[in-house]
Structures are given as structure tokens and as C-alpha cells.
Amino acid sequence: MEFLLNNLFWSALVVVSGALYLWNLLRSEGGDLSPQAAVGLINRDSGIVVDVREAAIYGESHMAGARNIPVAQLESRLSELEKFKTRPIVVCGAGGEADRAVRMLRKQGFDKAAGLAGGLKAWNEAGFPVER
Asked: Chunked in runs of 10, what are the mean pLDDT values of the chain (132 residues)?
């Protein structure tokens, strides 16, 4: 206890750092796949891509072969994905949409769902194909 009191600043720093690390770990379930890792899952493990952006935005540009199920409709359209429950699902969205979709899919038993880090922008920057 004396050590903690004598080193209050460092002790507080360790506690705050640990709390922030845990918070970030718990809140970010989705966007952890790089575009290269996503391609590996798609090619090697017959993964599918679900784009959870709104239809109008999806229509402008999307990953080749992606299915569009807007995040607001995901829960009601889960039956469309049931046959892919054991396969990897790469979720592409904007902002927190992908994280939200991944959490929802995992809650429904889609354990191999993962979000694409950086979304379509990262996919484009990596030079992978898109459809318009």
C-alpha cells in the first residue's frame, strides 16, 4: 500500500491504461480484418461478404460479390444468411455499422463473423475489386 501511495501517479496511469485497453477490446468486436485477411477468408474458407450500408450507398460501389443487407434490416433478414452460419462472414460497413452488425451476427450464432477494418475505403486502397 505504501508503494501505491508513494507512486500515486504511476499507479493511476496503470489503472487508467488497463481500463482503456479493456474498454477498447470489449467495444470493438467488428473491424479487425485487414483487406488481405478478408480475401484469405473469402478464397480459402468460402467466406461471404455482407455489406450493411444502405442500398443507395451500396449501389454506388461495393466489394465484388457482396450481398447488401442494411444493418437496420439485418435482424429481420437473418434467414437469408442461415445457410452460411458455419462459414466466415466478412462485414463491410461505415463507421459503427459493421461493429453493430458483427455483434448482432455473433449473438445469433454466426461465430465466424468479422468486420473489415477500414471498410470499403481500405478495400479500395488495397487495390481489390469493386462493383459499381
From this structure: 80 72 52 90 95 95 95 95 93 86 94 92 94 92
CB 102, CB 120: distance < 8 Å: no
Residue 106 lies in a domain: yes
In a domain, 110, yes or no: yes
Q: Which CATH number do you get for residue 38? A: 3.40.250.10
Provide the sign of the torsion angle of the four alpha carbons 98, 90, 54, 61, taken in this order: positive
Q: What is the pTM of this model?
A: 0.75
Do the beta carbons of residue 89 and residue 110 sit within 8 Å? yes
